[in-house]
Each structure stands twice: as structure tokens, then as C-alpha cells.
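Re: the 198-residue chain
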Amino acid sequence: MQPASTLAHLLNRGLPRSPRARQLCAELAGRSLAIEARGLTRLRFASAGATLSCEASDEAADATVSGGPLSLIALLGAGPQAQLQSGAVTLSGDTELAQRFHELLGLLRPDAEEELALVLGDVPAHQLARAARQGLQWLGRLGRTGLANAAEYLGHERAHLVPRAEGEQFLRGVDAVREGVERAAARLDLLDRRHERA
């Protein structure tokens, strides 16, 4: 089975579970959205009213979202505004339609644990998903620790970076000097005006 048709199958399997998704799918009947991962692929999603189709196609769509793969993945988060404002993702065509497709695809996003449960059973899928989450948390901690160690090494041992405490102290000093200069300028201005009046 092609990856695009596998994705369509996964999305359509979620339709019966969500009344809002069924409503959106019906409202979007005959409309289409293309998602283009620059340099990789272009997927065209279309609603037939009761189901969604997905195919790798260059056929025209009512709306097109294009960007790098990581930027497109970020669209699955809370909302597309940050990605669109930064220019990492571009949108052409019917923007309202693109937002409705975004909502629909968000509602139909497959749950990895649920999909594993269909193959492995509930208990093994839950244990595997928990292990994956713990592994990702461990990798996140490892990455943060590695970054902190590298910054400390470059700051203290090699002196290529300014240690955070010294940088903050320097910036506080700069702020204090700036405020002192502003106060002195204000006093000189006041003295100058008094001198002119005298």
C-alpha cells in the first residue's frame, strides 16, 4: 500500500469517532488542500463528503500549504500563525478552507498507542508507548545536560563563551551605567535651562 493511501486509511478510520470531523468532511465535499514539503513530496487531500482521499499529486488544489518538513510538522501544534508569520510556511489559495482542513486533519490525527493496540493488543501497546515516552524524556534530558556541559566547558575551560553569571552581571552593569548617563544628561539639561532663564 502506498504511503499516501495508508495515511488516507488512517484518517478515514478516525472519522466515525468524531462528529465534528464528520461535519467538517461533509462541509468540505468537493474541496481540496495540497501540502507541499519542499524538495520532498506534495500530498493532495480531498473530501468526498463522507471520506477523505490523499494522494501524491501535482493536481491543482483549492488551497496549498508549502514549507520545509519541520515547519509543516510544527503546524500540527496549537496553530499555524507563528509559522505563517515567520515565513517558514506559505499559504496560497483559499485561506479559510485551509484553516478548516487544518482543523479536520487535527481531529483525525492518529493516536500511535491506539494504532499499536490494534496490532499488538492493549497492554503491550500501552507498555511500548510508555517506554517510548520515557525514552524521549530521557533523550530530552540528555540533550539539555549535554548542552549545559558544552556551554560550561566553552565558558569556563576554553573561555570561548562568557559564563551566564558573568554575562548577566555585565549586562546589569551596562544597564546601571546607561541609567546613570541618562540621569546625568537630565541634570545637565535642567542646569542648562536654569542658566538660560537666569
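The chain has a mean pLDDT of 78.
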